[in-house]
Amino acid sequence: MELVSLRVGGIWEWGMFIEVDSDYVRDSNGVIVSNNRRLNPVGGRSALVFRVILGGGLATLSTGASSGVPLTCVSELLFEKTARSLARRRLVAIGAFYVMYVMIRWWMMCSYHRLRRSIESRALGKKYLMSYHNRRENMMRMVYESDVTSIVNIRMNIDDFSTLCDILENRGGQKNSKNMLADEQVAMFLHILAHNAKNTILVNRFHRSGETISRYFKLVLNVVCRLHKEFYKSLVPVPDNETDERWKWFKGCLGALDGTYVKVKVPVADRKPYRTRKGEICTNVLGVCTRDLLFTYVLAGWEGSAADSSVLRDAITRPNGLKIAQGTYYLCDVGYTNGEGFLTRYRGQRYHLNDWSRLPTNAKELFNMRHSSARNVIERCFGLIKARWAILRDNSYHPIESMPRIIIACCLIHNFIRQTMSEDLLDSEVLTNHTQPGNDHDNVISTVEPSQEWTDRRDVLANEMFNNWNARHMANSNVARGTERSKHTWTNDEDEKLIHALMELHASGKYAGADNGFKPGYLNGVQQLLDISLPNSGLKAEPQIKSRMKTWKTHFSVVYDMVGRFGWDEERKCVVAEDSVWDEYVKSHKGAASFRGKQFPFYDKLCIIFGKDRATGSKAIDLGEEDDVIPET
């Protein structure tokens, strides 16, 4: 048989398909065996499919034609159909087996994990119970063992601690959590305030994670601050029939106010405004207290370089800030203005007379002595809270954003302790060792400005004191006054040379990067430059250059605040303002009156030196808004 272009199409156990790429097939005699064209075409042509049958060692070529097909070919075709059916069944069986295998494997894995979780949960349950009992034993040792250990660890005895927990739970919304009871949360908070401990130490002390300690500290802090109206002391002025020798002369007085510094943690780039005159990074805190050492108002968060008068001005202008009714006042130091609502001592007179071991010689000295004796309550208050809470006297580990609320919370808890503990050992200790140098809002004082009326009132009060005292003590000695140190008068040429030296020093970068734009010791560098530019001036780093720098910074602060509110004439280098707004402005801003229209030629250059050191009070907080809380993240 003659075949043309045979190709193998598939192989079976018993034979193979042969695809003939021809229209017909002839035998050896040339007779056409088959020309079946009913099969699918291959390559656009008809094709014949034959099967080679292997039997008895001979190969028989059979066609798939329907007519004239040998019996052997029919049998083979039936067998082929059966084989295809078996192949399909085999594929179905394999697929079903694979699906069943996957399902069994999935069920076994689920069962394994379910069993594992069950075992782990039982183990964790036993471990949690053990940890719970261990933590409660730790609480018993730290708080509930005795009043002595409780005061050492959380600064209050057991009964007062229980009372505080009840107040925070019933009025502040403090709640037990799944993993920590409310008393442990409060104890942890008080322990951090009392000892200023790091999280790494508290983890071992309370057997809690650092994240848990931080989260519950913020939670309790928010609750305490939310109850500030509960803890602040109500204002009661000194009555007319007061018998206390320290206060009977100050009728209508509400207490005393002053500022103090608290060290804070500030990013390096933001430290300049927080640097104090002593070079420490601090925040300026305004505290107001009563004569029984209880805080009535606290404003915390101002930069350390801010003047006390600026902080006070911010306090009384806040919507819910410090309110002083007409006819009442506070005792304050000379850093504030002697005006309506604020009674200061006399400048240029002895103040802490007990330190000099002598008697007063005139009315002003006697007034200062009694003013000091009464105003000392605010200094004692600051001494008490810093002795009680280490977080206020040491370098804090908390960010500057949290410190204002922490400071206020310390004052609030101080009030609670003072009102509930029958005996405060710290009070006598601070009284002995502490020394420090020198809401109806329609009828309240809302400005801080000098007042001749209050100056006269102070004079009358001082004379009354002295006449009363002089009647009992016949003292007529006078004390010689020291002569004032001669002052250097700076010329325009010297000012120009000084500002040129400062700019040159600032550009060199040698002393840049600290308070006033310079590091300590920069005055000597300025003196060296002035010795070259002004060889015969005789200007020294101290006192002439230092005094001039202080004057410039004071003037710059006044002008800087004015430029932000009014216009600036670039050509004349002076502040310009309308009469209507200017008159109102100078009433509440001491020292601003002389700078309207006054030339300040070095303002632009001083902005480069002092501009970044300006205190703005942007982070100051007094809890006037009840929604001021720390996010619990």
UniProtKB/TrEMBL annotation:
Subcellular location: Nucleus
Transmembrane residue ranges: 91-108
Domain DDE Tnp4: 257-415
Entries under Pfam families matching the protein: DDE_Tnp_4 (PF13359), DUF8040 (PF26138), Myb_DNA-bind_3 (PF12776)
This protein's UniProt keywords: Hydrolase, Membrane, Metal-binding, Nuclease, Nucleus, Transmembrane, Transmembrane helix
Residue ranges that the Swiss-Prot or TrEMBL entry lists as coiled coil: none
Domain DUF8040 positions: 141-226
GO cellular component, one term: nucleus
Requisite cofactors: a divalent metal cation
Name this polypeptide is given: Transposase
Organism: Centaurea solstitialis
